[in-house]
Design a protein that fits this description.
The complex is a heterodimer of chains A (207) and B (80).
Chain A lengths: L15 H9 L2 E5 L4 E9 H11 L1 H7 L2 H7 E2 L2 E2 L1 H18 L11 E5 L5 E5 L1 H10 L1 E11 L2 E10 L3 E5 L2 H4 L6 E2 L27
Chain B lengths: L1 H11 L22 H15 L16 H10 L5
Classes of the chains: A alpha+beta (207), B mainly alpha (80).
Chain lengths: 207, 80
């Protein structure tokens, strides 16, 4: 497949296959280290109840979104423990973001209950901007309340960096590391179409 | 202005210390002000001084001491 040498024909662009052979083939693309950020917060349910009692709508409407209030409303009152858990989630997210300046508005951080019953964080405005700035690509949320307290944990994952490293048998022996085999890219026909063997797409290396 | 700030802190800060006894520059978080209580303090200050804290001022430093709060209120045009 790889006849001739680089630079053999003066004035011509180096053959793509030769470039692949010389430069790309010795490399493997691997997932780089991924930073995980964790934030946790605990809130006294009674403190939230007191805030509702003393500051009323000013507190509720400044801290919670309309959807959150709708999810935590009860006939004639509030499910205060749910509101407390949501406040804890907002504070936990702020700890994940580690803002160097001002923190986002609380309503830019919303807890949404999915149809499955699980809850997720939905960011907007300044919270979304700060998350993007921090490279946080995905968030997980867990909330709980028991008696006097409500708590939340938020985990944020950075985007996965893909780096090229020299190929090594050690990478083949690490099945837990998702390794993308760039050599499959060269298994294409001359028109760039993937060959019938299914090559041409980066595929996980099972080691 | 400091006395009104201390009044808000005493009513809404839920701190385990006597607010009257702490200095203007004492760290309120060290003195027991929680993040949730600071939200209450912020809202109460807005009511007391008829101002609104913009998003740019939502940072721990804004509420870290009586003098920091006074500085923030002055920047927002609050009057005694």
């Amino acid at each position: 497949m790889c006849e001739g040498r680089l630079g053999e024909a003066p004035g011509r662009a180096p053959d793509l296959e030769l470039l692949v052979e010389a430069v790309v083939r010795p490399l493997r693309l691997v997932a780089g280290p991924q930073q995980i950020r964790v934030g946790v917060d605990v809130v006294r349910v009674a403190d939230v109840a007191r805030s509702i009692s003393t500051l009323g709508a000013r507190y509720l409407e400044r801290v919670f979104t309309a959807d959150e209030l709708a999810e935590c409303g009860l006939p004639g009152g509030w499910a205060v423990e749910r509101l407390a858990a949501r406040y804890a989630a907002k504070e936990a997210l702020i700890k994940v973001l580690e803002p160097t300046g001002a923190q986002p508005e609380w309503r830019d951080i919303a807890v949404r209950r999915r149809s499955s019953g699980a809850c997720e964080l939905v960011l907007s405005g300044e919270a979304l901007r700060q998350a993007e700035l921090a490279g946080v690509a995905r968030l997980s949320l867990s909330m709980t309340h028991e008696g006097e307290y409500a708590a939340a944990v938020v985990v944020g994952w950075d985007t996965i960096a893909v780096v090229a490293v020299p190929d090594s048998p050690m990478l083949h022996d690490a099945p837990m590391i998702p390794v993308l085999d760039v050599r499959s890219y060269e298994e294409r026909d001359n028109d760039g179409r993937a060959n019938p063997r299914g090559a041409g797409t980066a595929r996980p290396n099972a080691g | 202005m400091e006395e009104r700030i201390r009044g808000v802190l005493a009513q809404h800060g839920r701190m385990p210390v006597d607010v009257a006894g702490i200095s203007d520059r004492a760290d309120l978080y060290q003195a027991g002000l929680t993040s949730h209580a600071s939200v209450n303090v912020m809202l109460a200050l807005e009511d007391e001084f008829e101002i609104e804290f913009p998003q740019e001022m939502l940072k721990k430093k804004t509420f870290e001491s009586v003098s920091a709060i006074r500085q923030a209120l002055s920047e927002l045009g609050a009057t005694v």
